[in-house]
Specification:
By secondary structure, the protein is mainly β. It has a single domain, classed as Exo-inulinase, domain 1 (Jelly Rolls). Helices cover about 5% and strands about 35% of the residues. The strands form two sheets. Strands 1, 3, 4, 6, 9, 10, 11 and 13 form an eight-stranded antiparallel sheet that branches. A five-stranded antiparallel sheet has the order 2-5-12-7-8.
């Protein structure tokens, strides 16, 4: 039954919508248009790659995020990513809190992280993953495994519609789910540093909004 349902969900985005033109979401020069939340260290490298890392001397190890200032509803998002062996990152959207309860503050609440309030697409460089591997819609749909190239650059596309989320890794559909109708339909896009050992690079980040 799960296989049949996945095939049905994968075959359609369910809502007739018209995508606009692709445009860069990250300019490759600076962090204009983005907001850092938490203790993440975000740097634009000389080749235009976005580097996210944490200070290994940090005593706490909760999440850190980089959020778009702008908020989005329906969209297609494409990006390339690289993370260290064992690295844990992700892409969030429709999170109204902008990570408020996920970072190292007295307000930390594991039940109100972005994956609980909006959605998070998992990025995980882990060969022995058992549950939510790369491309999973965290808490909603486990991704098809074996598609990600470990310890290398990978390409991800996230397609978000009013009642369907689809995730492709390296051109292959790995997860599809309608999501929760009670969760927000609008919000920022976030890039995650999961813990103090996190190290992630992104490039070629682009988006097209869908009306």
């Amino acid at each position: 039954m799960r296989v049949i349902l996945f095939a049905v969900l994968a075959g359609t985005l369910a809502v007739a919508a018209t995508p606009g033109p692709w445009r860069p979401l990250f300019n490759g020069e600076n962090l204009d248009g983005w907001e850092s939340v938490g203790t993440g260290i975000w740097t634009v490298m000389s080749d235009g790659t976005l580097l996210g890392q944490r200070d290994l001397k940090e005593k706490l190890a909760h999440q850190s995020w980089l959020y778009t200032n702008k908020e989005y509803g329906q969209f297609d998002l494409q990006l390339d990513y690289w993370t260290r062996y064992g690295g844990n990152s992700g892409v969030s959207f429709h999170d109204p809190s902008r990570g408020k309860w996920s970072i190292d503050t007295p307000q930390w609440d594991p039940n109100r992280t972005p994956s609980h309030l909006g959605y998070e697409i998992q990025i995980l460089n882990e060969p022995n993953v058992k549950e939510y591997g790369t491309g999973s819609i965290y808490l909603f749909e486990r991704a098809k495994l074996g598609v990600e190239k470990l310890n290398d650059w990978n390409h991800m596309e996230i397609q978000v519609r009013a009642n369907m989320i689809r995730v492709l890794v390296n051109g292959q559909l790995v997860a599809a789910n309608p999501g929760d109708p009670n969760r927000p339909k609008f919000g920022p896009i976030g890039l995650q540093l999961h813990d103090r050992s996190a190290l992630i690079m992104f490039r070629n980040i682009r988006i097209r909004e869908v009306r």
